[in-house]
Each structure stands twice: as C-alpha cells, then as structure tokens.
Design brief:
The complex is a heterodimer. Chain A is an all-alpha fold. Chain A has 14 helices and two strands. In chain A, strands 1-2 form a two-stranded antiparallel ribbon. The two termini of chain A are 13 Å apart. In chain B, β1, α2 and β2 form a beta-alpha-beta unit. The chains are: A mainly alpha, B alpha/beta.
Chain lengths: 321, 367
C-alpha cells in the first residue's frame, strides 16, 4: 500500500479522529456481543452520568494541551472546590446556591494562579501545576480537617443523580459545554490563537497574538470547569471529602491524548476528546460487564491507547511521505 | 511590584495549611462511647432492625447464586485474606459462585463505578467494604432496588443502604485494646503519634475518635503528639514513621499503626533507628507481616481480628439473607464453622472481641 501515494482526500479522511471513531465503533460492536446488558439505553445513559466530571475537565484540558501545556492540578482543584462548597454552606451558613457559585469561583482563582505562575514567572506548566497539585490538595485537607459535609437538600441531588427529559442532568451540562468548547476552538480568533501558541509560540508572538493572555484565560477556564465538576461530583456521591478527584487528572489527560491532541502542542480537536472519552468509558464499562476484572481492564485501556496513537502516527507518516 | 504581591499571596495560601498539623482526633463527628477502664464489657443497646430491604427479590432459597465482592481496594494482604475467607465459605456452601473485583486504589469514585457495573450486569448478591459510608449509599440503594442482596463487612455504609453489616469488632473495643496496650508498654504519661491511612477513611477515623475519648477517660496523662497520613502505602508509612522519630526524639514513646500496612512499616522504622524497646509500636496488623518484629521483641502486641473469618462470616451472612433464614428482627445467625454470631445495633452482626497476637501465639497464624 505504501507505493500508492495517498491522495489529499484520503489523507484528510485518515485523520486521527476518524481512526478513533472507527475504533470506537469496532469496540462498541465487540462489547455488545460480549454482554447483552451493555447496549441498553439505561446502561449507556448511566455511563454518561459517570463520565461527566472527567469529560467536563477534558474540554479545557484540550485547550491547555494544544498550547503545549499541561494542567496536573485539576483533580486537586476539584477536591478544594468540593470542600469549600461544603464549608461555605455548612460552616459559614451561606445559602447553598451562593456556596456553589463561590466554590466555582474559587476554582477559577485556582486556575488563574496556575496561569500567572506559568505566564508571569515562566515556570514550565508541568512544574507549576505539579506544585499547585500538592498545594491545593493540602489546602483541601487542611481546611476540611477531613470532616465530611453531608445532608444536602433534595433539590441539590438533581444535578448529579436526577434527570431532565429522561437524560441525566449532568449529561446535558456536558453536551452544552462541549458544543461551546468546540465552537470556541474551531471558529473563533481565540481558538486560532490557541493553536498558534502551541504550534510556534515565537511566531505567534510576532504575529501580534497575546499568547500570555490566551494561556491565562485557558488555565483560568480549566480551574472554573474543575469547580463546576466538583459541584456535580458532590451532588452525585452526596458527600464531600477532601480526597475527591484524586487521580482525575490522569483520566482527563488519557481522554484528551487518546482523542488525538498532541502533547507537543498545536494539534487537537474537541470532537477527538469526546470520542476518546467515550471510548475509555465504553471499555471500562463493557469489559466489566463481560466479566473482565478491574486490573485486566486497565491493561486493555493501556493497550488501546498505545495502538490508537501508533496507528495514527503510522498513517500520518505515510501521508507526509 | 506585581510579582512581590503575587508571591505574598502564594505564601499566604501556603501558610494556611499549617493548622492541618494539629493533634487530630478523628474525622467524623459521631458520638463516642468509651468502654470502662477495667474489663467491664460494654452494653449492647437493643435496637429494631434498621437495615434496607431489596425490592422484588426473587426466591433464592437453596438456589445457586452469583456473588461479587468489592472491597475498598484489591492487591493488599488484608483484603486478600477476606477474599480467602469468602472463597472458603462459598466452597463449603456449594451453591455460591463468588468473585472479588475492585479498584487498585482506595478511591470512592472507582469503587462506586465497579458496584454500578455489577448492578447492571446482574448479580444476586453484593459484598462490600466501603471507602466512604455516605458516598457509597446511592449505588447500594440502586442494588437493593434491583432486588440484589447487599451485605457489608469491614467498613460500613449508612444502614438503610445495605441489609446487614458484619462488624469485625466494635470500635470502642478496638480503641480500648490499643490504648491500654500502649499505656502498659510505654507508661501512663507517654507521648505518642499515630500513623493512619487517610483522615477520611471511616474505620480509622472512628477508631481514632474512640481512642481519644477512651484515653481522655482512662489514661488522661498520655500526650497526643501528632496524627499523620500515609495512605495504605508501605514506603510512605515508613517515611512518615521515620520523620516522627526524628522530629520528636525522646518525647516519642509510642506509635500507633492504624492500618495493616502502617504498623509493620512503623516497626521497621523503629528497628532501623535502633529504638527497639524505647519506642513501643502498637497497632492493627496481620500476623505474617509482624512475625519478625514480634520475634525480635521489638513489638509486644498486635491487635486484630481474623480477616479470613471476617470474609467467611460475610459470605455466610449473605447466603443466609438470600435464603431467608436471616430476617429482620433475628437475634443471631448461624455462620458455619464460626457457630452462632450475635446481631447487635439493629442490623450489624458481631464477629467477636478483638484478638491480640503476641510472642506466645503469633506463630500459630498464617495470613
């Protein structure tokens, strides 16, 4: 096949996202053969519920990684926001809606601090957010003294456990956010600035793009969305704990990278991230339903991640050559 | 100017974590019930059944059932031991197909997802050890609503989210055993530290809470120096213990290990620091991990129940529940080789008093 030059149309067809989508269809087909419980509406909607928090954070993370950065602190921001919402409501006696908004704003501030450290002090994102990962988690534990806040009013659980028009509430939120994110990244000057900053930062600066402002906004958005995910998480599990969201950053990064966003920056799409997210969740759920144990599932996800990236590298090299 | 302001803000944020290092005495605000200072047994309050009921459960009496066991995490010795007990009971019963599956980290969210998937795939019974009693409740209620029999062991959920909970030993009993042992070994005015898993782990939080209440009542001169977190991680537990030894020097007369990982790691840290005999180690641990330290006289007593029996009892209780031989309001349940186990506190089944391993008996146990 290598002696036949790939035409431009075939090349664009064999984008990473397309390969991934084909892989997803194959995986779904196999998994629905393995268990009759997998391809049921109830199960699929339930999976949508379970993947929302990771999915929400994966949207701004796509932007972060496209700029060539990384944000390891999102799980810790989630934990901190969850704890603060409990503290604002339970300890300070604020009305719950106010506490929710404040908690999300704290998430934004957490993201802003990340952005400032990265842009003003020129600290590499990996190191800056590694530091704030520890800092925010420590704050969450210190503030909460490991005391859980429980007993939220019933209306609050609608967010994490209820549904709207038969579809889990949080899935609506995720779909709306995904559409907004895809629009911003694909059709606005801000989206183009994001790609430019990741593809060649120096060139972007010379062409008049305010790279620092772009990055600052992106990291702040990552914090804000982590705060929103925190509120949904608390509503879903009906309690706050300071260790909430531990390790979420890895699930988020897995979805984004599997979705074809280049860790070197400059390349990636929201649709890719969403397909990556759905693929990981389908594998976790489908393998479990067909009797594969938890440790086996992790191995399969690791293999799929490597295969997907190998396949897309292979095709893009053929295409370039 | 801007930079220095920002730096100041960062330091302000960081310094607010400092108050996390106080002598922490338990994360839950539940009431404590310290036992008497002498050997008077605690009173067990009679309460009506307060567990949950599965909806439209099919008749499973004597029929073959499939059971999944979802512990806090897999891959640690303690839950390998409970799994062994579950398998023993399943084999003995002959009409149970049991398997253990779960997350590799003690993480609330992953455990919930595992249970959720097994509810969807359709099992007859679920055994669980909760990472958080409240967070796990919605998914367990979903299992009950699907007609699945739900029994907990090791770490409880809110009572209405499961049918029964097999309690290995009462919290105040464990607390008394631990605190009394340390007071005896290190003296009534000993300064001590605690190495726990995380502040949010419900069992550990409950024990520490009860320990603080019991110490205040019966050993008021003991000094609580610090409680540190070490997950359920060997290396971290060792490092935390070594740090405590360096930090407090002669002030530190004892260390409590609250997990089966922390206790041997603390014993190793004391051994390597050459402090054997000067710093007492008292804690919860499995005998195999502690044998070397007990034989060298570095550790005098190890407190635990038999986790193999705990898993065995949990499986027997689940079978009895599925068969309908254990019903709301019963005062005891037959649990195979363990004989009759008592129902306490509404819907809990008590395995027995905590067991103390020492040089005289530890060699007889292998788990």
């Amino acid at each position: 096949m290598s002696d036949v030059p790939l035409s431009a149309t075939v090349k664009s067809f064999l984008r990473h996202e397309t390969i991934l989508a084909i892989l997803l269809v194959v995986v779904l087909a196999i998994l629905s053969q393995q268990s009759d419980k997998f391809f049921t509406t109830a199960n699929l909607l339930n999976q949508g519920r379970l993947m929302t928090e990771v999915g929400l954070i994966a949207l701004p993370m796509t932007f972060v990684i496209i700029t060539g950065g990384i944000d390891l602190s999102v799980g810790s921001i989630l934990g901190l926001c969850a704890i603060l919402m409990g503290v604002f409501w339970h300890n300070l006696g604020l009305p719950l809606p106010v506490a929710m908004v404040l908690a999300v704003l704290v998430g934004g501030v957490g993201g802003l601090v990340n952005g400032l450290i990265i842009t003003r002090f020129k600290v590499p994102p990996l190191i800056a957010t590694l530091a704030t990962l520890a800092l925010y988690r420590g704050l969450a534990e210190g503030i909460s003294q490991a005391r859980s806040v429980r007993g939220y009013p019933d209306w609050f659980y609608v967010l994490g456990q209820g549904d709207f028009l038969g579809i889990p509430t949080q899935l609506w939120i995720f779909v709306i956010f995904a559409i907004i994110a895809a629009f911003i990244l694909g059709f606005t000057t801000f989206g183009r600035a994001t790609y430019a900053a990741g593809a060649n930062e120096t060139a972007a600066r010379f062409s008049g793009i305010n790279v620092d402002r772009t990055k600052l906004l992106i990291y702040t958005a990552a914090g804000l969305v982590s705060g929103i995910a925190a509120v949904i998480f608390v509503s879903r599990v009906s309690t706050t704990r300071s260790d909430m969201g531990t390790g979420v950053e890895l699930d988020v990064i897995t979805a984004v990278v599997l979705g074809g966003t280049s860790i070197f920056g400059g390349r990636g799409t929201i649709i890719g991230t969403v397909v990556g997210l759905v693929l990981v969740q389908a594998l976790k759920n489908g393998l479990s339903l067909s009797g594969v144990k938890g440790d086996g599932t992790i191995v399969v996800i690791g293999l799929v991640l490597i295969l997907a990236i190998l396949a897309s590298n292979l095709f893009s090299r053929n295409g370039d050559g | 100017m801007k930079k220095s302001l920002l730096l100041a803000a960062c330091f302000g944020l960081a310094s607010s974590t400092a108050f996390a290092a106080s002598a922490w005495t338990g994360g839950d605000e539940l009431p404590t019930n310290p036992l008497a200072c002498d050997a008077t047994p605690g009173t067990v309050s009679a309460k009506p059944y307060d567990g949950g009921v599965p909806t439209n459960a099919p008749d499973r009496n004597g029929k073959k059932i499939t059971v999944v066991d979802i512990p806090k995490l897999i891959g640690v010795g303690y839950f390998a031991a409970t799994t062994k007990g579950i398998q023993e009971a399943a084999k003995e019963l002959g009409n149970v197909d049991a398997k253990t599956d779960g997350p590799t980290k003690a993480n609330i969210d992953e455990q919930i997802t595992f249970i959720d998937n097994y509810v969807t795939s359709g099992v007859d019974g679920i055994l669980f050890a909760a990472n958080d009693p409240v967070a796990i409740a919605p998914v367990l209620k979903k299992a009950l609503a699907a007609g699945i029999n739900v029994v907990g062991y090791d770490a409880n959920a809110t009572p209405d989210a499961r049918q029964w909970f097999v309690n290995q030993a009462e919290f105040n009993g464990i607390a008394k055993s631990l605190v009394d042992a340390l007071a005896k070994e290190a003296g009534e005015d000993a300064g001590f530290a605690i190495v726990t898993s995380t502040f949010t782990t419900p069992n550990q939080a409950r024990w520490i809470n009860e320990m603080s209440a019991y110490a205040a009542k019966c050993h008021p001169n003991m000094k609580w120096l610090e409680t540190v977190e070490a997950q359920e991680d060997n290396v971290l537990s060792f490092n935390q213990s070594a740090t405590l030894i360096n930090k407090y020097g002669d002030q530190l007369k004892g260390i409590f290990g609250m997990t089966s990982v922390a206790t041997p790691a603390a014993a190793e840290a004391v051994t390597q620091a050459g402090q054997c005999g000067k710093i007492a180690i008292v804690g919860l641990a499995t005998p195999n991990a502690m044998k070397p330290y007990v034989e060298k006289d570095c550790v005098k007593s190890v407190v635990l129940w038999n986790p193999v029996d705990l898993g065995y009892a949990a499986m027997q209780v689940l079978r009895a529940t599925a068969d309908g031989t254990l019903k709301a309001g019963d005062a005891s349940v037959k649990a195979g080789k363990l004989g009759e186990l008592k129902v306490v506190n509404g819907s809990e089944i008590l395995l027995g008093a905590p067991f103390i391993f020492d040089k005289s008996n530890i060699a007889q146990f292998d788990f």
